[in-house]
Amino acid sequence: MDTIRTDCLVIGAGLAGCSYAHYASRLGMSVTLVCSNELSKGANSQWAQGGIIFDTSLNAEQLKRDIISASDGTSNPEAVDSLVEHGQEAVQSLLLDELNVPFDREKTGDLKYTREGGHTDRRIIFSKDLTGLAILTSMHEHLVGLKNVSVLTNTVAVDLLTLSHNSLDPLDKYKPITCIGAYVLDTQTGNIRAIIAKKTILATGGLGQIFQNTTNQEGVVGHGVAMAKRVGARVIDLEYIQFHPTVFLKKNCPLFLVSEAVRGEGGVLVNSEGKAFMDTVHPMKSLAPRDIVARAIHQELISSGESCVYIDLSAMESDFIKERFPSIYERCFDNGLDIAKEPIPVAPAAHYSCGGVFTDLKGRSSVLNLNAIGETACTGLHGANRLASTSLLECLVTAKLTAEADCQDVRSANFYLPAVREWESPDESPDEVLIQQDMRLIRSTMWNYVGLIRSSRRLHRARRILLELDQEISEFYSGNRLTRSLIDLRNAVRTALLLVHAASLNSESKGSHFVAVGDDEVDNPAAATDELK
User: Fold this and answer.
1) Is there a catalytic annotation at residue 230?
2) Which terminal residue of the chain has fewer beta carbons within 10 Å of its beta carbon, N or C?
């Protein structure tokens, strides 16, 4: 079996993984970065529209209060302090000074600022409505020129390597649970190799694709969470799934995110009768925190029987809309809607996982030498609900702190990295029809029973369906040759079960986890969108 040895194995090429590779390389460590597609495709980071918090020194205490308020009082104060303390310098040094990301600027050359839901100040910088793409494009161009960084494209992590499970020395099972890398699949050749590493960093993103309606990219099914849990890592707060309140919704058209910045610049949520229904729901009206807005829209749809609500842009000039939100304007126009003249039809969809692999503020999980950063990880920063435009900033900050801590270990510690067992795989090809059918069942189950509104009855039904499916998928997985879709399916059902278990253990409604008062309450979170798929 072909084996690679490296200081740092990074699994995932979004902003968190690429930022870590940047910092680790600068600190003199060798890095192997695994990307499931081509480097420029597939990461959720590149689809982040709104922006990134920059001026954290401007009323820093108020920013902390906004983060904690959006979390419904559940954020980890130490994680909040760390983000605010390190955030501005990370943006300035990497994105502005090093990469020269083309953020929007005033005629004077000063950065433009906007505001999003839950923010009391205009503290967010942006690049039109394609901030994530602008940042990640610059990052990828920068990454390919870095020494000590090897990028493996079209490569998918299969399982983490540990001393207990994979070492050729049977006595290593008595050592503490320690990660030493991962098995990876080359999706173009079908070959499986081991990458042995001193530090393994999970940066696989979120899990939105286990839901029927989501803003996440294909394949984002909680790979990092599932792999980490299989080797015994602690995962927390998985019940806290943020549903973005405004996703474009039109019959026979694709779903896509409509940035919160649209409301930050003056867009107003209205129902089919043109009433601004958020005015009576929250003091911040259409700019209330996401969990509140998403549930308010959900309730509005249940009450009215309509499939969507609307964002009214009539307070904005036509030229401003086209200049400020060119991507959203173009995508809506391509789907038969001129948002300079018409309101945007929207409804909620699964967007962001506030929970994940438990780590400290330096990315360290409960398994030795296994780290997690970005959306894969959970430091408690977001608590029960994430404040807008904190996610990209968190990627930068945690990547930097984790790389610095890893560098100290690599320089000072002795790492035991034995040879590992060969991967054995059956020759039979999996039935793709079965894989896609099972994936559809996972997504519909999660959407119908583990969505915006939950109850013990719905969660029990979801668990029963998923447990039976998990058993079938396990047998299917063990009897077939590995493919990308089979790996996705295996991790999707495992992540879904972990989420349902977490939600079942938490009977308290907080932030994005809302539990119905009684099991007899009648509503169907799928009704508003099922008919449009």
Assistant:
1) no
2) C
Token pair recorded at residue 382: 């977001």
* Cα separation, 528 vs 530, whole angstroms: 6
Please name the residues in contact with 377: beta carbons below 8 A apart, sequence gap of 6 or more: 202, 356, 357, 358, 359, 363, 365, 371, 398
Euclidean distance between the first and the last CA atom of the chain, given in angstroms as a whole number: 44
In the set 263, 290, 443, 494, the catalytic residue is: 290
Average the pLDDT over 210-238 and give the result: 96
- 224 and 11 in contact (C-beta within 8 Å)? yes
pLDDT tens digits, residue range 406-417? 999 999 999 999
Q: Taking the complete model, does pTM exceed 0.90, yes or no?
A: yes
For the record, the structure tokens of 174 come out as: 């008595």
Contact indicator for 430, 481 with CB cutoff of 8 Å: yes
Confidence of residue 520 (pLDDT cuts 50, 70, 90): very low
Contacts of residue 437, defined as CB under 8 A and 6 or more positions apart, other chains included, come to: none
Place of tokens 């973005």: 244
Q: What is the mean pLDDT of the chain?
A: 93
CA dihedral 156, 161, 165, 170 (to 10 degrees): 130
Identify whether the C-beta of residue 21 lies closer than 8 Å to the C-beta of residue 49. Answer: no
Cα–Cα dist 199/201, whole Å: 6
